[in-house]
Amino acid sequence: MFKQSEDGLGIKLHKHGRHIYAIEFLYHWITDSQPIEQMCFEDAKRTITKIETKRLTTEIALTDDELILLAHSYRSINEEERAQAVDKALAERAQAVEIQDAEDKSFLDKLVELEKMNGMKSY
Fold it and tell me: What is the domain partition of the chain in residue ranges?
């Protein structure tokens, strides 16, 4: 299994100026002592820790992508109740955006109606 780095999937380049003097291969062997399910479980726990720490310690709202990833991670470790709570927050956020869009549309419709009533005056 290859790990991600800033240089690409599975590699890390060691540079001196413009010259590459070494390439480090980033991989992890999947063995019977550490099956893929356990690796996925550990990855889900790391993801949950990272996102929940961001949510609880900063004033920055999580993005929709982060919430989707968080819900998926909770489902990966069989925490369906928490995943449903995150899905509910996503649905509420989507509904709030729809309401805001409807209010903006209503505002613009009122402006058009007012222009029609006043004879479409020029700027």
Answer: 1-30, 35-117
